[in-house]
Structures are given as C-alpha cells and as structure tokens.
Design brief:
90 residues, mainly alpha
Length: 90
C-alpha cells in the first residue's frame, strides 16, 4: 500500500536533520514515528475500553476495592510477604 504525505518544509527539514544524526533514512524516521504513535494510541484506546468495561461491571455488581486496599496490596509487591490480589467486595 503506497501512501504519500504532504508535510511542511520546516518539518521535512527537521526529519532530515534527525535522520542524518541517527544515520537512518528520513523514510525510516517517519515510519518509526507513525508506528510509535499508532501503538501508543492503540494502548490508550485499550486502556479506555478496559476502564469503561470495569465501570459497567461495577455499576452492575457493586464489586470493588478501596484505594487503601489496593495500596496495601501493592506495598507488598517485591517483598517476602507479597500478598495475592485482594477479593472484591460490595
């Protein structure tokens, strides 16, 4: 799939300068930037959808953990007394 982009000369120059510094082609720099952007936005959308699903589940069931319960659990991470995930409750 061939795609073309029209970018301003100032940005084109910045891309070329970065490409020269990294010893890469301008094409590689632009592909890398697009890939990182898409991956970041996909992760953001996934996080948003997970949060919306969690909120819907909470509204249906009332099951939750308090912030303090989560902090107490997280404080055990990496210790000899690491605790399992606490059970949700109403």
């Amino acid at each position: 799939m061939a795609t073309s982009l029209k970018i301003e000369d100032s940005l084109k120059g910045r891309v070329q300068q970065l490409a020269n510094q990294r010893r890469r082609s301008a094409h590689w720099i632009m592909l890398e930037a697009i890939q990182q952007y898409v991956e970041r936005e996909e992760a953001r959308e996934s996080f948003k959808q997970e949060a919306l699903a969690s909120w819907a589940t909470y509204q249906e069931t009332g099951q939750h953990l308090t912030g303090q319960e989560v902090r107490t659990w997280l404080n055990t991470w990496g210790t000899e007394d690491e605790k399992p995930v606490p059970e949700c409750h109403k």
